[in-house]
Request: fold
Amino acid sequence: MQTFDLAAEGLRELNSTLHAQSEETNQTKWEVVNPRGSHAIAVGLDAPIEVNIKGSTGYYCGGMNKQATVHVHGSAGPGVAENMMSGTVVVEGDASQYAGATGNGGLLVVKGNASSRCGISMKGIDIVVHGNIGHMSAFMAQSGNLVVCGDAGDALGDSIYEARLFVRGSVKSLGADCIEKEMRPEHIEILTDLLARAGSDAKPEEFKRYGSARQLYNFKIDNAY
Amino acid sequence: MCGIVGLFLKDKALEPQLGALLTDMLITMTDRGPDSAGIAIYNDESTSYSKITVQSDTPETSFAGLAETLSEALGAEVGITVKDTHAVLVGPADKLAQMRSAIEAMETPIRVMSTGDSLEIYKEVGLPKNVAERFNVSAMNGSHGIGHTRMATESAVTTMGAHPFNTGLDQCLVHNGSLSNHNSLRRRLRRQGVHIETQNDSEVAAAYLTWKMQNGATLGEALESSLDDLDGFFTFVVGTKDGFGVVRDPIACKPAVMAETDQYVAFGSEYRALVNLPGIEDARVWEPEPATVYFWNH
Reply:
């Protein structure tokens, strides 16, 4: 395993070292110490490597990730795993606002709570939050799955397109055009797989599914002010 | 974008380190606000003496003989401590208003930064590191303090446009965000006789809270009502003589992180600002909820 001291060697050195890893690299396991809330740690990776960050991170940790597994052993600042394409990002603590925003693929796991705008404009990413999520989560979500083992805040799924939202606890309020939907066997199957991959022992049967009522797809004069 | 830091000490043993801890936090927030920086620090809660912190761009001439002139005008002794472009004037508490009027009536270019029993505000244009060094903030002690690094949006980059803003005795406010109804609210407050110096949106928020508290609201109640009456984006951190409060607007897009231990309550725009605090590894760290008022009192 390679250990990288961020305080001593700096962010550019870290990211360029990680970017230099190819699909065939033998150095698959990395540890980053002294993250101290720094921005843009392990951003833009594109190799099947595992990066363990020993502490809390600032803005955009694991952003644009492809293939890599980024594990934050602390809490993450705004925009963790933003625009992830594939791979896995795991946050042991809490995640700040817009976790997993615009993500195209991969899996984001937050073991604590995620704050506002979790999964905003998600485009295929899977997000599993063990705790609660804040307001305006999955705003304009287009594709993918958002799983919340706790409660959701105000305006969940506002102006949602086609993402699936699964919430075990309460939903403070649903956003425009977001409704509760029937939980069918195929949804239980998706949920079972995601919960298992995210290390959650929550039971799929305890969740409710929410999604788009598809009333905002076409212009309707009744929707105008 | 702006940076906010705040530290409210529960453990008196940390008081000699307040300035040093705040300086470190403030400098970490430089890239959120390199235009100007300021610090409000609360210390020395004497009830018989009050303080006015003043600023001048020409301190050598403006502060020369200032204490003597004021002593004569007030018929009571006024002490002065000069720190770079600022000076702290100390006079009898019952003559504070008189002292302020005397300063404002002077022909020398002196501007009032803060008034109160324990509050001192130091703020200038420039990088946080340079501002903190000019006033030797790291040597200051106190019970609580608030710092701000400004990236200006709503008004010019000047000393008067720098945060924190002091609009009532021992009260101060710093702001990250921008208010959209500050012009109309400024007019309303001025009609109520509230003194507002600048065109800055954040000063209006400070004046609004002061006005609410003058009308009987507690700090917590004033912050609650700000959620109804202020329109725009804001994370506020406010200080009073013995209190420290935080509120974010309902959308809450301006970042905020808090940490609490047995020794202190700390605020940072980012977690980065908190990493050097003692015992941060074991602190309770959380993000303040939107539209929720937090405050602590000594």
Summary: The CA atoms of residues 31 and 275 of chain B lie 16 Å apart. The domain at 2-44+127-297 of chain B is CATH 3.60.20.10 (Glutamine Phosphoribosylpyrophosphate, subunit 1, domain 1).
